[in-house]
Design brief:
Blueprint lengths: L1 H18 L5 E2 L11 H7 L13 H12 L19 E7 L2 E6 L4 E7 L19 E8 L10 H24 L2 E2 L7 H8 L5 E10 L5
Antiparallel strand pairs: 1-4, 2-3, 2-5, 3-4, 5-7, 6-7
Helix pairs in contact: 2-4, 3-4
């Protein structure tokens, strides 16, 4: 009888854990056409801190994540360079229904935890227009650089995250979305929520949405 109750308890715990994760999402292939030419995108690039309530479509999110740090060559290299090609930057996607991890290899979103946790990237938001439809948190896994680089690991991780953020900025400028690169966020809250290891450091975040209508 005791074994039966133990089995049921483990079953219920497993169901509860699975219920806390949003379903994985396979993204459509990115649309690599359209948008402004690079010089025009640079000419209009600017930072926005307020967003329209309109949600991004899954195609928008597919294009955004591929531009940020997707695979653009058969050998698995990315749209963003990284120190020693360690590909240390992971992108966590915060949306209204939950948090996902971008898997560049399969071009999909892996569900991490359900619920709206976007306030962690803007804990001081004073209005709903400051809450983006999508928040991208750039996490560098410094363990990928090995132990022989010392303090340079943090510098390399920060640089790599900055390059991914710039890809996001230029994509948004070219496609008419609003964004701003930010260091301010609830680091400890994100580490706990995402179950990050000590070597996984949240470096930057980019809220993304449509421009706020006047």
């Amino acid at each position: 009888m005791n074994k039966f109750f133990v089995f049921v308890s483990f079953l219920l715990i497993g169901l509860l854990v699975n219920a806390q994760k949003p379903k994985d999402l396979k993204l459509n292939a990115p649309d690599k056409t359209g948008g402004k030419p690079i010089m025009e995108a640079l000419a209009v690039r600017h930072s926005d801190r307020e967003f329209d309530a309109k949600e991004l479509s899954l195609q928008d999110i597919s294009d955004l994540l591929w531009a940020a740090n997707g695979i653009n060559r058969p050998e698995g290299k990315r749209t963003a360079p990284s120190a020693m090609n360690k590909q240390d930057v992971e992108i966590y996607v915060l949306m209204k229904d939950g948090v996902y991890l971008y898997d560049a290899l399969s071009h999909s979103l892996n569900g991490i935890v359900s619920g709206d946790h976007r306030s962690l990237i803007n804990p001081r938001a004073q209005s709903t227009s400051a809450t983006p439809p999508v928040g991208l948190v750039l996490v560098s896994d410094l363990s990928k650089f090995g132990s022989n680089v010392g303090d340079r690991a943090f510098q390399m991780g920060a640089l790599d995250a900055g390059i991914v953020s710039q890809n996001i900025n230029l994509f948004c400028a070219g496609k008419g979305f609003s964004t701003v690169p930010r260091m301010s966020m609830d680091n400890e809250g994100l580490k706990k929520l995402l179950n990050l290891k000590d070597a996984q450091i949240p470096m930057l975040n980019n809220p993304v949405g449509y421009p706020k209508k006047n």
